[in-house]
Design brief:
The complex is a heterodimer of chains A (175) and B (281). Chain A is of the alpha/beta class and 175 residues long. Chain A contains five helices and seven strands. Chain A is 22% helix and 27% strand. A five-stranded mixed β-barrel of chain A has the order 2-3-4-5-7. In chain B, 46% of the residues are buried. The chains are: A alpha/beta (175), B alpha/beta (281).
Chain lengths: 175, 281
């Protein structure tokens, strides 16, 4: 099913767990250290320092390889989501709506997703060359000195994902 | 003595980093294809198909198989009749090759120089280098790119020497249920048994250098590998932990003599992006 993030902002209930979707829209790469930095900014109550507007945003746990000349991006698959669990509820509370990564999440994260009617998608790890083809545009947003852990804004077209935790709190890993 | 220049070793290391990150080895691809045929779970089948397609795209478009191009691990078997010539030490030669391989081929630089300060080295060095001396006049270099996620899931336990095989098996299976399931299955599982606390984890890493489909030379452990593989593939974890029969492609056991008081066991997880390559100089 092809789906645009804009439609999911209006109605996250359009998808439920196990749905295989092809997602289009704007997503931000945010992984370990960037989570810590965003959390510090939120804790110090200085929202003007946030690298991007969190409201209704989508974040992708990803640190891509550098783009070779003539390419938009290098390999760009997901990293393990669980390492972000500690930070996720605060990000959701501050407006983040969509999470993209790999693997299961903590009970606290599942509850936050349900409460905020957010969505968690999984991408397949280790298919980073295939996923690179779905990125149409890239822009460096923040933390350039972190190298692969910098925040990039990506425009994706038909990125293959599976709905893993839906806005009703149902969890694909609960088997 | 046969003279080998360090610059040849540097060139070999560079080539290995390059080739391994873009080409999935044949044994891995073959087993992924076999599992695709036998897998009955639809989501699992779709993921296996994507992994196989990804291997083609990586090779044809020259995009790394995975964005985590790993820590660079080198296993050198140096023949005792080799004389290494050049200004660099063997470690410098390998690190120089690693830096060239990761920089020139646009691979990710995933190494920080200090575990607490966490400043990136910007060229993926230092590599992890393991050297052993063998007979002959050649150098065999095997490279393994190891992703952080699967390495993080690896575990080590010091058992009592009186522990049963069942207890060890339970520990291995539980480690997959707890953390291994999130480290990009289908997994290749390296198990080290014996030795000491310090070297059992190396045994589990060395176990990962075998080819998928190869038998353990020890009949007892060969049977245990097959039993474990069967048990693991019946856990319904499946590719990416989304269900199915394809949880592991191979279980490899390496053992070593140990102390009368000890029974160390280490479980080393390798994701399906099993990037290894060997060169003989």
């Amino acid at each position: 099913m092809e789906i645009n993030l804009k439609d999911l902002i209006i109605n996250p209930g359009l998808v439920t767990i196990k749905d295989k979707i092809l997602l289009s829209g704007t997503i931000y790469t945010v992984r370990d250290i960037a989570h810590k930095k965003i959390t510090e900014i939120l804790d110090s109550n200085e929202p003007h320092k946030l690298p991007f507007a969190l409201l209704n945003s989508a974040i992708y746990y990803c640190g891509p390889t550098p783009a070779k000349p003539g390419s938009i991006i290098g390999a760009c698959g997901p990293t393990t989501s669980k390492r972000m669990d500690f930070f996720t509820p605060k990000l959701l509370k501050n407006g983040v709506k969509f999470l993209i990564g790999k693997g299961d999440r903590s009970r606290t994260v599942i509850n936050s997703i349900k409460e905020k009617e957010a969505l968690y998608f999984v991408a397949t790890g280790g298919i980073a060359a295939l996923l690179a083809r779905t990125v149409k545009k890239i822009e460096l947003i923040a933390f350039k000195n972190l190298g692969p852990e910098a925040i990039y804004k990506l425009e994706v077209k038909n990125m293959p994902l599976i709905v893993a935790i839906d806005s009703f709190g149902k969890n694909i890993f609960n088997r | 003595m046969r003279k080998i220049q360090t610059k040849i070793i540097t060139k070999a290391a560079e080539l290995l980093c390059n080739e391994a990150n873009f080409k999935l080895p044949n044994d891995v691809l073959e087993h992924l294809k076999q599992n695709f045929i036998f897998e009955s779970n639809n989501i699992a089948k779709g993921i296996l198909s994507d992994i196989i397609e990804n291997a083609n795209i990586a090779l044809n478009d020259k995009i790394p198989l995975c964005q985590d191009t790993g820590s660079a691990n080198f296993f050198l078997e140096i023949g005792k009749e080799v004389y290494i010539e050049g200004r660099d030490s063997i470690y410098e030669a390998i690190n120089r090759g690693t830096a060239l391989g990761y920089t020139k081929n646009y691979l990710r630089k995933s190494i920080v120089l200090d575990p607490i300060i966490r400043k990136n080295s910007n060229d993926n060095t230092p590599a992890n280098i393991y050297i052993s001396i063998t007979s002959g006049d050649k150098i065999k270099i095997t490279f393994l790119a190891k992703g952080g996620g699967s390495d993080n899931a690896s575990v080590l336990k010091m058992f009592n020497p009186t522990s049963s095989w069942q207890e060890i098996e339970d520990f291995i299976v539980d480690s997959i249920k707890n953390k291994g399931k999130n480290s990009c299955p289908p997994l290749i599982i390296g198990i080290g048994i014996g030795g000491s606390f310090s070297n059992v984890s190396f045994l589990s890493l060395k176990a990962l250098l075998r080819n998928i489909g190869s038998s353990n030379k020890n009949k007892f452990y060969d049977e245990k590998e097959k039993e474990l593989l069967n048990t693991i593939n019946n856990l319904n974890i499946g590719p990416m932990n989304l269900g199915g029969k394809t949880t592991s492609l191979a279980v490899f056991i390496e053992t070593k003599p140990t102390h009368i008081a000890s029974l160390p066991v280490a479980v080393n997880f390798q994701c399906h992006s099993y990037r290894k390559r060997t060169i003989i100089i």
